[in-house]
Amino acid sequence: MRGWERAKFFVIRHRTGLAVWVLAIILLLTPLVVNNPYNLGILNLIGLYVIVVLGLNLFIGYAGQISLGHAAFFGLGAYGSAVLTAGYNFPAWPAMGLTAAVLALVALALGVPTLRLSGHYLAMATLGFNYVVHGVFVQWDAVTGGPAGLSGVPPLSILGFAFNSDIKFHYLVWTCALAALTLCLNLVRSGVGRGLAALAQDEVAAATLGVNVQRDKVQVFVLSAVFASVAGSLYAHYFGYVNPDGFSIFKSLDLVIMVVVGGMGSIWGTLFGVALITILPHFLEFFETYMDIIHGLILVVILLFLPQGFVSGLVDYFRMRVAKRRLKLGAVKGNTSL
Amino acid sequence: MRVSKNLLEISRLSKRFGGLPALSEVSFRAARGQVTALIGPNGAGKTTLLNCLSGVIKPDAGEILFDGANIAGMSAPRVARLGISRTFQNLRLFPRLSVLDNVLCGLTVQAGDSFLEALLRLPGLRNRERRLKLTALEALNTFGLADKAALPAGVLSYGDKKRVEMARAFVSQPVLTLLDEPVAGLNPEETAQIAGLIRQMRMYGKTMILVEHDMEMVMGVSDQVVVLDGGCRIAAGTPDEVRVNPLVLEAYLGRMSLTA
After folding, report:
1. Residue A231: its pLDDT value, please?
2. ipTM above 0.90, yes or no
């Protein structure tokens, strides 16, 4: 009996870590079940977007700001790696690091002036940024290859082992995605994360408690740009080519919709949001044809009825209901264990 | 270094909103370990003064000496780091966070603010988080909220929310705590409870500045009362002195007794 209690205590105490491990084991085994390249390709795409949207969700859900330009960071990550490796024979991993570092500085330069102001100035700035970046991808033929894009990006490799098939890339991208997931879960369970959650709900109160509101917002924005950049680099090496199509402002909107479906500030919900929005058009032709209309509808309906986002909105709703019931029943008396 | 008896010395503090003076050259001192009450009719400038003290707004002129250093115009997070905490007239809890997390937010300064350390969840941070959680649970216990620690703060009764805010303000062992109308909207029983908590905190040696309309409560817990009217200080003294001051009676208590 004591052993059982201790096991229970262990599970409760390490529930977050255990959940990540369970997910890792499931993903380790999925290629046994999902073995056709088409489905595996979709799963890889989900892994890529999970990395981008985790960062974006921290920014929207915790800093309480909107970025409408994350497809630009994603695209710049992809083009950075593609240009450096295919065009200049740069080694792949340093190219990825260099691109991410440069984009961190770009995010800093965008974020510092705009996040100082109250209101959604950053939303406008990032929208413009995305527009300009997409324009550069299309127009600057000499470097970006114009509308046709760049090809010949080599696959990533570690010590001579190349991630050059769907199944090999599956393990690479999901290792990165789980690393990103772990970093995000760590952040939100720390004092810094509580400060961010506080500032998203009430900036004045957060500031009087010692939260450095401006600095924290900028740091989360930079972090999300780095995540998007790394995901972009992985994307370029996976497909072997890049073109401007996937990095327009409409892609940025899709990323925001993924956040909204997953729920603002919900790390686990992000997995659901990305998976749903990525899978829909692949399985229902109807969705592919009317994708933009459907995405718009999803966004409007969720924001009307569950402004916190779909998954976390539902979770919050039930959490509040359960808590109110317990308060009414007086059941909380005597429950001091935590 | 000489330790002054006064923790806080405010001199000639002024603030205007547009053309309207909200504070005009207000001066007073708050002694260590004492409760200084700020009273005055609505619009007297009490909350503006607290906002200047906590860095929420910047005063136009004047000095705020806290422990000998001028903090006028400092940002709110910097003021918090010096050990000044506060509550708000209209509750400012984080409704979706649990009661425990709300109180843990009061320990933001102690929790550290390194992003890198938080992302990697280094062992030092784990241990610190465990210690902070214990501190927060102790505070919840002191404020009679231990059984509600896991509930989202948004579902609590108004009286409980007021106490969560006080627990959040006191959990960090602040040097000075600003309480903005802690019993507004509470029934007599809850008011007595809060008054008891304020007396308890004073016994622990806490210095507090209390803005409040409930005269009975103010007279019961304060060492010193400062009276503001129309942004000016019109009187200061012990509760008994202020009670019989004709200026105060005219500006404030007189009006109160007519309406009450």
Report:
1. 95
2. no
CB A72 within 8 A of CB A130: yes
Facing A208 at nearest CB: one of B56, B100, B155:
B56
Q: Among B173, B202, B236, which residue terminates a domain?
A: B173
Q: Taking the CA of residue B146 as centre, how many other CA atoms within 13 Å lie in the half-sphere pointing to its CB?
A: 12
Q: Which residues constitute the domain of residue B236?
A: 1-83+175-260
d(CA A205, CA B209): 18
- Tens-place pLDDT, residues A64-88: 888 898 999 999 999 999 999 988 8
Instruction: Give the strand pairing for B61-66 and B69-70.
Output: antiparallel
* DSSP β-ladder status, B232-237 and B224-229: antiparallel
8 Å CB contact of A338 and B149? yes
The three-class DSSP label of residue A257 is helix
Assess whether B75 and B106 both reside in one domain: no
One-character DSSP codes across B112-180 = ---HHHHHHT-HHHHHHHHHHHHHHHHHHHHTT-GGGTTSBGGGS-HHHHHHHHHHHHHTT--SEEEEE
List CB contacts of A180: < 8 A, sequence separation 6 or more: A50, A51, A54, A55, A227
Of chain B residues 23-82, which have a CB less than 8 A from chain A? 54-56, 75-77, 79-81
Tell me, yes or no, if A306 comes closer than 8 A to chain B by beta carbon: no
In a domain, B89, yes or no: no
pLDDT tens figures, A292-331: 788 888 888 888 888 788 888 888 888 888 888 887 776 5
pLDDT, mean over chain A: 86
DSSP for A99-117 reads HHHHHHHHHHHHHHHHHHS
The 8-class DSSP code of residue B57 comes to: S
Same domain, B245 and B179: yes
Could you tell me if A320 lies within 8 Å of chain B, comparing CB atoms?
yes
Residue A334: predicted pLDDT: 44
Q: Any CB–CB contact under 8 A between B242 and chain A?
A: no
Residue A320: exposed, middle, or buried by beta-carbon count in 10 A (0-12, 13-18, 19+)? middle
Does residue B248 sit within a domain?
A: yes
Joined together, the tokens standing for residue A294 give 């459907």
Between positions 142 and 161 of B, the ones with CB within 8 A of A are 146-152, 154-157
CB A30 within 8 A of CB A43: yes
In angstroms, what is the C-alpha Rg of chain B?
19
Which of A208, A226, A338 should be substituted to probe chain B, the one whose Cβ sees the most B Cβ atoms within 10 Å? A208
A180 alpha-carbon distance from chain centroid:
9
Nearest to B80 among A191, A201, A208 (CB): A208
- Which helix (H) or strand (E) segment is B15 a member of? strand B6-17
